[in-house]
Design brief:
heterodimer; A: about 475 residues; mainly alpha; 17 helices; B: about 325 residues; alpha/beta; Rossmann fold; five-stranded parallel beta sheet; two-stranded antiparallel sheet; 14 helices; about 45% helix; globular; disordered C terminus; transmembrane (chain A); AlgI (chain A)
Chain lengths: ~475, ~325
């Protein structure tokens, strides 16, 4: 089931009513409801893969208890490895097996040996596997690092792993935040529910109006890049930047908003990354839950920045390459990760990687300074350029795309593949950027205006825009489901 | 919780109300002309109506229509006489042309090419061969004065019945309930942009699951059924011809041979029914011939059809002294 489907709009109010009206007084019953609803939510996509979620839940539930019961560090570590090997193994098999086989065959052929790729399997990638395996692993890590006491309430733990608002595409929650909320009584709050509904509305807008509207053009340009002039390729990758942002941040907003309806606060996953002033700030604002995960469980254990500069650079490279690989079993993602590492290192060496941590562009004024504007445009340009790797089908296509931009620069007007007016989309993007700039100081309140009248006008415009750009023929799945 | 429910209802009502106003201000949805069945049992539009046809979420296609005194969308009135050359285009929505300005129809395009010729467009969405022949039969006097009659047909839709009667399903659209619903422009707009497709599909899926499983046909059975259907349609065609007659010298079909079974084309050839095939002409076009939001011909598509008819008329016209 996906958030932007009719099924979800029947499912969500049903679960909401049961949760607050029928099971309101019993925490355990509410948690069982969350668990059942989550399994139904996932099972409607493919019920067979529920077994993987259950298995992952069982393993980490048991591993955490085991780790906690042991004092000896080596034994604790051994049990931690059980969790890591199991979860990474699960990911490895379902997500990376064919990639490794194919890469091995390709590598051997480089040395002149011909080998047929007969070991590849027809493996279906279970939706959300990268997200829930990381979430369960983080639980075992936290117990291992003694940041958390393991729970003995299996049903609540299972509800934490499979919590449907964030099950298939995050935010990747840490147990210290989500599990603790699931274990404690939730109270209905009018403000929290309204805030959740607003986030759902804003998330839907980003998905339906921004991401889905741009998708046909992006698909067309990336598929037929060899027949388009360079100006169109630049347009295509810029549109992809907005598409992927609208798609993923839209999903996250709906997830966070949905969780709020059940009295649960999830962590923010996006904080206006398009207004970042350098690549480091961008990574503090884009897919925050994944960046946080890698910082806590990879970067810091490797020594983080508290080691020599050279080792820190090594750590940065590892984090970005692994992060790229996490996105998908394709060299394009590894190049994408590598590119970001290269863009991040100079910022790190100049000591500017944390300077924008607690501020936003135009912090004390409404308009940004010229310097800030330049920084934002440069960062957006770098990030957008990296997305050529992210979006291309293969590394050859990515380099073909780049090559065409730099060696054959020409201009040509682009026509929508279905013949729609292009001006509509240009206006849409400009207005979206302006609006996001206005609300840039609070990612969790997209409609934070004092006047009720202004808020009402904006709700109406948002809903009208969704109608104006709605297309019943478009594939409406979310991009990050494939990861 | 009570506050939430009250506010949700209140906001929903206000937003729906605002959207209704916006849809009306920006004219985002189409107008519906009134239909009726005249004293001869012919279904058509109430005379002398004007309005706008809109397609696409963002009014991508916006065109005015004008229903003339006879009840069809046309810039001209139908006044055939013996001393002029007239062509009648009879057909469904493709001839009706609500998706184009009524001054830019196929008929007008033909008139621009054939000096002095008048083209009468008897187009009505959903007209099949039974509707068309019944119309011609009921208005014999008018059609007797018309020199050429082009009948637009689509095999899969237009031969489903062997005798004429008023299509009640279409006339239901004139019932008070439907009329009232059409006053709610937001609802019309939502329907037009396909917002109800998913709920309909979902309900359809739920209802048809068992039926589908029980009635799954093999490929051979499907082919057999298809053959049977073609024969049935040809029988319907013969039945209609027997009832209403068919002037082979004056009448000509306009069809797409790619969407017409070979059996039927052979039948037409064998019995010397003339037809104009637009399949090749549209296929040859390098630019799109249909609209973005639906399958109707766009301006270019209509020009191609007009040229096809014009060429045919030019070749066949003999009786009048007209300079082309």
């Amino acid at each position: 089931m996906v958030f932007n489907s009719l099924e979800f709009f029947i499912f969500l109010p049903t679960v909401f009513v049961l949760y607050w009206f029928v099971f309101k007084k019993h925490l355990k019953a509410q948690n069982i409801l969350i668990l059942v609803a989550s399994y139904v939510f996932y099972g409607l996509w493919d019920w067979r893969f529920l077994s993987l979620i259950l298995l992952s839940t069982l393993v980490d539930y048991y591993v955490a208890i085991k780790i906690d019961s042991l004092e000896e560090k080596s034994k604790r570590k051994s049990w931690l490895w059980v969790s890591v090997i199991f979860n990474v193994g699960l990911l490895g098999f379902f997500k990376y097996y064919n990639f490794f086989v194919d890469s091995w065959v390709d590598m051997v052929s480089l040395f002149g040996y011909e080998m047929k790729s007969t070991w590849t399997l027809r493996v279906i990638l279970p939706v959300g596997i990268s997200f829930y395996t990381f979430q369960t692993m983080s639980y075992s890590f936290d117990v291992y690092y003694k940041k958390l006491k393991p729970t003995t309430d299996f049903l609540s733990f299972a509800a934490f792993v499979s919590f449907f608002p964030q099950l298939v595409a995050g935010p990747i929650e840490r147990a210290s935040n989500l599990l603790s909320q699931i274990l404690n009584k939730r109270r209905f709050s009018y403000d929290q529910t309204v805030s959740g509904l607003k986030l759902i509305l804003w998330g839907l807008f980003k998905k339906v109006v921004i991401a889905d509207a741009l998708a046909p053009m992006v698909d067309d340009i990336f598929t037929n890049y060899s027949s388009y002039p360079a100006s169109t390729l630049v347009l295509g990758v810029t549109m992809f930047s907005f598409q992927v942002y609208g798609d993923f941040s839209g999903y996250s907003d709906i997830a966070i908003g949905t969780a709020k309806l059940f009295g649960v606060e999830l962590m923010s996953n996006f904080n206006f990354p398009n207004f970042s002033r350098n690549v480091a700030e961008y990574w503090q604002r884009w897919h925050i839950s994944l960046s946080t995960w890698f910082r806590h469980y990879v970067y810091i254990p490797l020594g983080g920045s508290k080691v020599s500069k050279l080792k820190s650079i090594r750590n940065i490279c590892i984090v970005f390459l692994v992060s790229g690989f996490w996105h998908g079993a394709n060299w394009t993602f590894i190049f994408w990760g590598g590119f970001h590492a290269l863009a991040f290192i100079p910022v790190f060496l100049m000591g500017r990687n944390t300077i924008y941590k607690d501020s936003v562009v135009g912090e004390n004024t409404f308009f940004p300074t010229l310097t800030e504007l330049g920084q934002v445009l440069l960062t957006f340009g770098i990030v957008t350029f990296s997305r050529i790797f992210f979006r291309s089908e293969s590394i050859t296509s990515a380099f073909g795309f780049i090559n065409r931009i730099f060696t054959d620069f020409s201009y040509g007007t682009y026509n929508h593949p279905m013949g729609y007016r292009m001006i509509d989309y240009y206006i849409l993007i400009i207005l979206f950027v302006i609006y996001e700039y206005i609300i840039r100081k609070d990612e969790r309140s997209p409609f934070k205006f004092k006047s009720k009248g202004v808020r009402f006008v904006i709700y109406t415009i948002v809903i009208l825009s969704m109608l104006l750009f709605y297309d019943s023929n478009i594939d409406r799945s979310f991009i990050y489901f494939q990861f | 919780m009570k506050k939430l429910v009250v506010n949700l209802i209140l906001y929903s009502i206000l937003i729906v109300f605002s959207l209704e106003i916006l849809v009306r201000i920006f004219h985002l949805t189409k107008d519906y002309p009134v239909r009726y069945v005249d004293e001869f049992g012919v279904e058509k539009w109430k005379p002398n109506q004007n309005g706008y046809s809109v397609t696409g979420n963002r009014r991508q296609n916006f065109s005015e229509y004008h229903i003339n005194k006879f009840g069809y969308n046309s810039y001209r009135e139908f006044n055939p006489s013996r001393d002029k050359v007239e062509i009648a285009l009879v057909g469904d929505s493709f001839i009706e042309g609500f998706h184009q300005n009524y001054y830019n129809s196929i008929g007008k395009k033909i008139e621009n090419k054939l000096n002095g010729v008048e083209v009468y467009e008897y187009g009505y969405a959903g007209y099949d061969l039974a509707d068309q022949l019944h119309l011609i039969d009921q208005y014999k006097e008018q059609f007797n004065l018309i020199d050429y009659v082009v009948l637009g047909i689509k095999f899969e839709n237009d031969f489903t019945r062997g005798e004429y009667n008023v299509v009640e399903e279409r006339m239901v659209l004139e019932s008070p309930a439907y009329k009232a619903m059409r006053q709610f422009k937001l609802l019309v707009y939502l329907q037009n942009i396909g917002a109800f497709d998913n709920p309909r599909e979902l309900i359809g899926k739920i209802l048809s699951r068992e039926v589908d499983d029980a009635h799954k046909l093999t490929k051979i059975e499907e082919e057999k059924n298809q053959k049977k259907l073609v024969h049935k349609y040809i029988e319907n065609f013969e039945s209609l011809i027997n009832i209403y007659g068919f002037d082979k010298a004056k009448f000509i079909f306009l069809l797409d041979s790619e969407k017409t079974p070979q059996t039927f084309l052979d039948f037409l050839n064998k019995h010397q029914f003339k037809y104009l095939d637009f399949s090749e002409a549209l296929k040859k076009s390098k630019t799109p011939t249909t609209l973005i939001y639906d399958m109707h011909w766009n301006n270019h598509g209509r020009s191609i059809i007009a040229k096809l008819i014009t060429d045919y008329i030019k070749i066949n016209i003999k009786k009048k002294q007209i300079i082309f």
